[in-house]
Amino acid sequence: MVTSLALAILTGQGLMQQPRPHPLVVLSVLEAGATCVGKTVMDEMAYSINGENYHYGTPVNPRAPDRVPGGSSSGSAVAVAAELVDFSLGTDTGGSIRVPAANCGILGFRPSHAAVSTKNVIPMSQSFDTVGWFARDPTILVQVGTVLLQSPIGATAEPSCIVVPEDCFTTLCSPSDNISQILIKTVEKLFGGHLITHKKLGDYIFREVPSLGNFMTKSSGNQASKTIPSLQALSSAMLLLQRFEFKANHAEWINNTKPLLGPGIAERVSEALTATFENLDYCYKIRMELEAALSTLLGDYGVLALPTVPEPPPKLGLEASKLEDYRAKAFSLLSIAGMSRFCQINIPLGFHENLPVSVSLLARNGADHFLLKFSQVLYGALREEAEKAWKGD
């Protein structure tokens, strides 16, 4: 591998500025021939999906300069989108590879949990933390995977099914009527329509993950916010478990150092430090039930298609209440991979009304090489189909 990379690092105060040993993933790509050309800004304490940093500013989204780049690995995504590097590394706990990849119109891969070493990476929430990577070229994305993934590559496998959850695609603001059809037409052209299965994912998860009932409320999902009740409950369970682990990892340092944190981050950190965690035991049950349910649905080489994010990147400086609504809708989608520990890839389709549009594919935990290779096969055809669909819009 002879290529250039950028690294997302935690930035802030105190502990975050102390010298630390290089993460194993950094050493791995350097030993494989990559050249590090820079370290990049990310959200404080990896606790946002917007990409804004109170201390260092917001990296400019090259594909939509008036929009947020997405976080927390915002600088790494921007470095790739701006063609400053061939690929970059970042972390994804709740969505911090997938969201900036979608917002910046590039490829982004969140590996299966524990598929890539997190040694010497500052933990945010260790049972969710993953090290992922960005690229513009699917060949480079696969190449990085051959270096970082700890599982053997194995023989190339054909997909057994492509599950398209129409309920998830109808939650999109726009262009909801196009993205699933672009995917379906591409799969039909390359593999045949017999692979495609339509499913109401929200109903399936509600039925197969009974412990979710402990997080279902009267406000879980509603027509106005276009959220699916079971997925909103899944998101609530994910965020609770993340707060618990974040508090265990960082409460002592935060209480002793009292760092100045930016708007949004300060509130989320405070929420984590003051949470009571009554339903915590159910989170672990939900995780096991969800992984089993999705493993049954997909099998060894099935793929679940999803919108990566619910709408185009939010505008810079958007009022807090609207950003929180976006976060809630986004996490209802992002929590599927997070709680199941499946791998997920963001594939950019191109631009619709001058804004980047993407689709995501998920596969079972451990099927990382399969998903990367399958996405590489789909990539060009998906973008061609998207260009035809949006021509003249």
From TrEMBL:
<feature type="domain" description="Amidase">
    <location>
        <begin position="25"/>
        <end position="137"/>
    </location>
</feature>
<comment type="similarity">
    <text>Belongs to the amidase family.</text>
</comment>
<dbReference type="InterPro" id="IPR020556">
    <property type="entry name" value="Amidase_CS"/>
</dbReference>
<protein>
    <recommendedName>
        <fullName>Amidase domain-containing protein</fullName>
    </recommendedName>
</protein>
<dbReference type="InterPro" id="IPR036928">
    <property type="entry name" value="AS_sf"/>
</dbReference>
<dbReference type="GO" id="GO:0016811">
    <property type="term" value="F:hydrolase activity, acting on carbon-nitrogen (but not peptide) bonds, in linear amides"/>
</dbReference>
<dbReference type="Pfam" id="PF01425">
    <property type="entry name" value="Amidase"/>
</dbReference>
<feature type="domain" description="Amidase">
    <location>
        <begin position="282"/>
        <end position="372"/>
    </location>
</feature>
<dbReference type="InterPro" id="IPR023631">
    <property type="entry name" value="Amidase_dom"/>
</dbReference>
